[in-house]
Specification:
Blueprint (H helix, E strand, L loop, with lengths): L3 E7 L11 E7 L8 E10 L2 H7 L16 E9 L15 E5 L8 E5 L3 E3 L6 H5 L2 H14 L7 E4 L5 H12 L4 E6 L2 H11 L3 E4 L5 H8 L5 E6 L6 H7 E9 L16 H4 L3 E4 L7 H14 L1 H6 L6 E6 L3 H9 L6 E5 L2
Parallel strand pairs: 8-9, 8-11, 9-10, 11-12, 12-13, 14-15
Antiparallel strand pairs: 1-2, 3-4, 3-6, 3-15, 4-5, 5-7
Helix pairs in contact: 3-4, 3-9, 6-7
Length: about 350
């Protein structure tokens, strides 16, 4: 007899699925089948923007991902695959962990690679830990692996009050960035980034020409690194605001993928700009494991000490997954939305 579990599913629709299509159902419980996989009993999972896009059929899901949404979680190790002595990465049954998955975290159980697990510090709640993996790994990837950040450099984080930027601002502040700028859609969000996170200054993209403001704030030099989630509409502004030999890290296209007519790409040559796009979910386990180790080095000790913080906007029981998605869609949050399982 096949064991089952509860999970969040999506009611079939004729087009992009709305939040109201989400519901709890019963599906087969997964089983770890290789020495490097573990079965985790989930305590909490985090929401990410990609979950909304996947729900609407607008996200390129990797082939190894299950249909169930969700990529980050916290929970308890329940079992390992056969012959796991060499692939357990030092974990044991009963360990409290948090980690990253290709999908399937909106459920009672998940099977993941042990390379993507981290031990949950006692200082963090289940809900806080569930908000770390995707967010802090993406910020670490953008800052160090793609942006090649070094102490003393300046940086601009777009969507400053988003979860990834909240993590990224704290990372580069702790690593001696010279100046940290942000864009956001309201003054309260800008104030949050400056007062709570350590940003130098913020610009309201609804009322200010942020590219001009960045240049004014840097005496016309621009910033060394720009991390962008908006895409096409910001392409020209990013080229204007980046410094010579600077890097633009492209992580998303919330504003669309088409650049405006008249866009001038001369800065690529004139400033020797490097523009690089990246994703995390499509990466292999080796790359993700490398990022896991970097998060353990750069972030986890400071999260334990309280020097860095995980900002949780709201925790929902997972039976209220529709309300959780609607809140994320509102774009009014300043931190993670978490669902508690059970």
């Amino acid at each position: 007899m096949v064991e089952t579990m509860r999970a969040v599913a999506i009611h079939p629709t004729s087009g992009p699925a709305p939040a109201t299509a989400l519901h709890l159902t019963t599906i087969p419980k997964p089983t770890p089948t290789t020495p490097t996989t573990a079965l985790i009993k989930i305590k909490a999972f985090g929401l990410n923007r990609m979950d909304l896009l996947q729900r609407m059929g607008m996200y390129p899901v990797p082939p190894q991902a299950p249909s169930t949404l969700g990529v980050e979680f916290s929970g308890l190790v329940e079992a390992f695959g056969e012959g796991a002595e060499e692939g357990k990465e030092g974990f044991e049954v009963g360990d409290e962990v948090f980690g990253l998955a290709y999908g399937g975290a909106y459920a009672e159980f998940i099977v993941v690679s042990t390379k993507m697990l981290m031990r949950k510090p006692g200082e963090l709640s289940w809900e806080e830990a569930a908000g770390v993996p995707e967010t802090w790994m993406t910020a670490t990837q953008a800052l160090y692996l793609i942006g090649s950040f070094r102490p003393g450099q300046s940086i601009l984080w777009h969507a400053g009050a988003s979860s990834v930027s909240i993590a990224g601002i704290q990372l580069c502040a702790a690593d001696s960035a010279s100046r940290i700028f942000v864009t956001a859609g309201s003054q309260p969000k800008i104030d949050f980034c400056v007062r709570e996170l350590g940003a130098t200054k913020g610009f309201n993209y609804n009322t200010q020409d942020w590219a001009k403001e960045v240049l004014d704030a840097t005496d016309g030099q621009g910033v060394d690194i720009i991390v962008d989630f908006v895409g096409g509409p910001y392409f020209q502004g990013n080229l204007d605001a980046v410094a010579r030999d600077g890097r633009i890290v492209h992580l998303g296209a919330l504003g669309g993928t088409q650049v405006p007519a008249g866009t001038d790409i001369g800065a690529f040559v004139r400033k020797r700009v490097r523009f690089e796009g990246s994703s995390l979910r499509s990466r292999d386990e080796g790359y993700q494991g490398r990022l896991r180790d970097m998060v353990l080095e750069h972030a986890v000790p400071k999260l334990r000490s309280g020097e860095m913080k995980i900002f949780v906007e709201k925790v929902f029981p997972w039976e209220e997954i529709v309300q959780a998605h609607l809140l994320m869609e509102s774009n009014q949050t300043r931190g993670k939305i978490i669902c508690r399982v059970g």
